[in-house]
Design brief:
The complex is a heterodimer. Chain A has helices at residues 2-32, 52-59, 66-97, 103-114, 122-131, 138-147, 154-162, 165-173, 178-189, 191-207, 210-216, 225-231, 235-276. Chain A has a domain at 64-231: MetI-like (MetI-like fold, Orthogonal Bundle), CATH 1.10.3720. Chain A has 13 helices and no strands. Chain A is an all-alpha fold. Chain A starts with a helix and ends with a helix. By secondary structure, chain B is an all-alpha fold. Chain B has 19 helices and two strands. The chains are: A mainly alpha, B mainly alpha. At the A-B interface, helix 1, helix 3, helix 4, helix 5 and helix 6 of A face helix 5, helix 7, helix 9, helix 10 and helix 11 of B.
């Protein structure tokens, strides 16, 4: 008897919390279908529902070129995710499996570099890009997102650490070179961590605001969705574009939400994996 | 270094010539392609350093001497505009040249070692490796160099180079009144740090309160999210609760939503005329709006509460798996001893989870010190105050840094803050990270 009452309380707490957590999300979705314009309404449920916000988002390109921003972000995501995945897998495999003189030292340097606030050097990055003559371009964004990826090798390294070394040794006895072991044995076995890396680096350009804003400046043509949606909320636009902003937010969120829900177990492994085994 | 002195002492004349003419040893002893490559590197380097490299490095001493301005041109008999030096470019090119110099020294010492190595190979009557054989080594015994080459190049050019540049700026007076190309800036030593840390200047009067709030925020945000997330995970995992995956997914939804979306929506809802205030007023609960984001203290509380919405699901997600790993017999025997649920939580659950997630907690703390999104999207650091220099009541060090960089171009102060944040993060993590098991037991699985 006591037990079922305890469970009832838990159900009530969970339901209340669940509603609190879902409410803002629900609110965005409803706003995206709201017929009336404006950044807020003095009532919760919209008076009328429409699909027009989504259509306008892609059809009207004069003030906000959302379709262009969307394809920009997609291009940047695809390229930077390919590069980042390659970088992360190379570095983490090297640090996990190969033994060489500077290994420990390099890992410590990576740790130290990670402790500087990420965007402390953003203005310097901007000038370096300008030096190369590629500031305010999509290429610049791709390079900035992917080039630092090699520093985030810890999660993948933890994964490689768990693949038994006896496999490598057996292959080595059969005369395989280290490069062959990497390509033929380790890479095929590292599918989960490869997926994790692909997904996280694919998602980064969709949600990043800081770097994109510093690098792109006023180059509207090359904005990513995060920058673009943010600019819809400026004072002069917010009233007439708020519902459209919500529609854009929903469109951006859906793929990210799906990817995240599908790969959450790798995310958890990545954070706890290194420590659980110790 | 040791190898180079050995090469100098024990090397024959050919090896010693390689100190000056790179690749000489390889060329003489039959490794033609490699020798030519070394020689080519030397030629390019000499050309670069003589034409611009050395000049760039030596200009680093003063960062430019000619200010932009009107200079009397004797031939024309009138004043003409002289472009002057650009301190920013001088610093950038200087740092770049230093990097190239380091890279060159690296290749040069490889060349010396190589020459000595091939000398020994010949001495012991072996055949020096052909170029093709050496290339092949890069897929086997030197695989680490192949795999690390591109990632390191990326990190050096887009992380290390900008970082060095920015760290150096902290020792100059590159602020809003010394902006190139019009004005010069120059080295001022530790002056910025003094200004920042002294309580007399307006910068210092901003720094200390902002630092205080950064710590308060990081501690509260980390602890609340962690403990409450764990409790949520315990509730969902409780025996007899159905629909566990359903509840979990509901909370995970908020992680899946990009932060800039959820935070911007929250900002809108919590605005003075926002949905929440309007609803509360309509319902007759309040008469005047509640300044969720426009009153300093209130805004800080709001930020911490909103952060719960963002952060609790993360720690729930992470502790869920660990909770399932706690041996059930621990609770069994605790129940037999008559321990209450609360005692069990503090004596079994918390210590166990804490032990496993210690590194996560540290990263969370550092992450919160650097948490840009929640402040910038929710309050933009506001409400603004005249007591602070370019910062609002809820600004963290990093958002203040961002404002100083983007709004006022006070780069020198911005990088000073960056260095101080680095020092804080480094001290916190060095004290704790090295003690965690994942660092010590790296080889545990092999």
């Amino acid at each position: 008897m006591r037990k079922s009452r305890g469970n009832a309380i838990v159900y009530i707490i969970l339901s209340v919390l669940g509603i609190i957590w879902v409410l803002p999300i629900l609110w965005v979705i409803m706003t995206s279908f709201r017929q009336e314009a404006g950044s807020f309404t003095p009532y919760f449920f919209p008076k009328g529902f429409t699909f027009q916000n989504y259509i306008n988002l892609f059809a009207e390109n004069t003030t906000f070129n959302f379709s262009r921003w969307f394809s920009n972000t997609l291009i940047v995501s695809v390229f930077s995710c390919v590069l980042s995945t390659f970088y992360v897998l190379s570095v983490s495999y090297t640090m996990s499996r190969l033994r060489f003189r500077m290994r420990k030292k390099m890992m410590n340097i990576a740790l130290v570099l990670g402790m500087f606030p990420g965007f402390m050097s953003m203005i310097a990055v901007y000038y370096v890009l300008k030096l190369f003559g590629i500031s305010q371009s999509l290429l610049a964004l791709i390079l900035v997102y992917s080039s630092g990826a090699g520093l985030g090798f810890y999660v993948a390294k933890g994964f490689f650490d768990t693949i038994p070394k006896s496999l490598d040794e057996a292959a080595m006895l059969d005369g395989a070179s280290k490069g062959m072991i990497f390509r033929r044995i380790t890479l095929p076995m590292s599918k989960p961590i490869a997926i994790y890396t692909v997904v996280t680096s694919f998602m980064a350009p969709w949600v990043d605001y800081i770097f994109a804003s510093v690098i792109m400046g006023d180059s509207y043509e090359n904005y990513t969705v995060a920058l673009g949606l943010f600019s819809m909320l400026e004072k002069e636009f917010i009233h007439s574009y708020y519902t459209r902003f919500a529609a854009g937010a929903v469109i951006v969120s859906i793929p990210i939400a799906i990817l995240f829900v599908l790969t959450q177990r790798f995310y958890v492994q990545g954070i706890t994996g290194g420590s659980v085994k110790g | 270094m040791g190898n180079i002195t050995t090469a100098l002492k024990k090397g024959d004349i050919i090896t010693r010539v390689s100190f000056l003419i790179m690749g000489f040893g390889n060329l003489v002893r039959g490794q033609v392609v490699k020798g030519i490559l070394y020689l080519a590197v030397e030629a390019v380097a000499i050309f670069y350093f003589l034409t611009s490299g050395f000049a760039s490095i030596s200009a680093l001493r003063h960062l430019g001497t000619n200010e932009q301005g009107w200079v009397f041109d004797e031939e024309k008999g009138i004043d003409v505009l002289s472009t002057g030096d650009n301190s920013m470019l001088i610093l950038l090119y200087g740092v770049l040249s230093l990097f190239i110099l380091v890279a060159f020294i690296f290749i040069w010492s490889a060349n010396v070692k190589d020459a000595y190595h091939v000398q020994n190979t010949v001495k012991f009557g072996k055949r020096p490796k052909t170029f093709r054989e050496e290339i092949k080594e890069y897929t086997d015994s030197k695989l680490h160099q192949t795999l690390l080459f591109l990632p390191t190049l990326g990190i050096i050019s887009f992380t290390v180079l900008p970082l060095v540049f920015m760290v150096l700026i902290a020792f100059t007076n590159f602020d809003r009144s010394h902006q190139p190309p019009g004005k010069l800036f120059t080295w001022i030593g530790l002056e910025n740090f003094k200004t920042m840390l002294s309580s007399g200047s307006v910068i210092g009067k901003t720094f200390w309160p902002v630092l205080g709030w950064t710590f308060v925020w990081a501690i509260f945000a980390t602890v609340f999210n962690y403990v409450l997330g764990m409790i949520l995970a315990i509730l969902i995992n409780k025996k007899g609760i159905k629909y566990k995956p359903f509840f979990r997914t509901i909370f995970i939804m908020s992680i899946a939503l990009p932060q800039f979306v959820s935070l911007l929506v929250m900002r809108n809802i919590l605005d003075d005329d926002g949905a929440l205030n309007v609803l509360l007023r309509e319902a007759g609960i309040i008469e005047n709006y509640i300044p969720f984001l426009t009153n300093g203290t209130m805004a800080k509380i709001t930020i911490l509460v909103v952060n719960l919405w963002i952060g609790i699901p993360y720690s729930m997600l992470i502790t869920t798996g660990i909770l399932m790993n706690i041996p059930a017999d621990l609770y069994e025997s605790a129940r037999i001893d008559g321990a209450s649920a609360i005692t069990q939580f503090f004596r079994i659950t918390l210590p166990y989870v804490l032990f496993v997630t210690a590194p996560y907690l540290i990263t969370q703390f550092i992450g919160n010190i650097n948490n840009f999104n929640i402040i910038y999207f929710l309050t933009k650091g506001g409400p603004a105050t005249l007591d602070y220099y370019q910062a609002g009541k809820t600004d963290l060090l990093v958002t203040w840094l961002y404002k100083l960089t983007v709004n006022t171009k006070d780069y020198s102060y911005a990088s000073t803050i960056g260095i101080l944040v680095f020092v804080i993060s480094a001290v916190v993590s060095l004290l704790t990270y090295r003690r965690t098991s994942s660092y010590k037991n790296e080889e545990a699985f092999s």
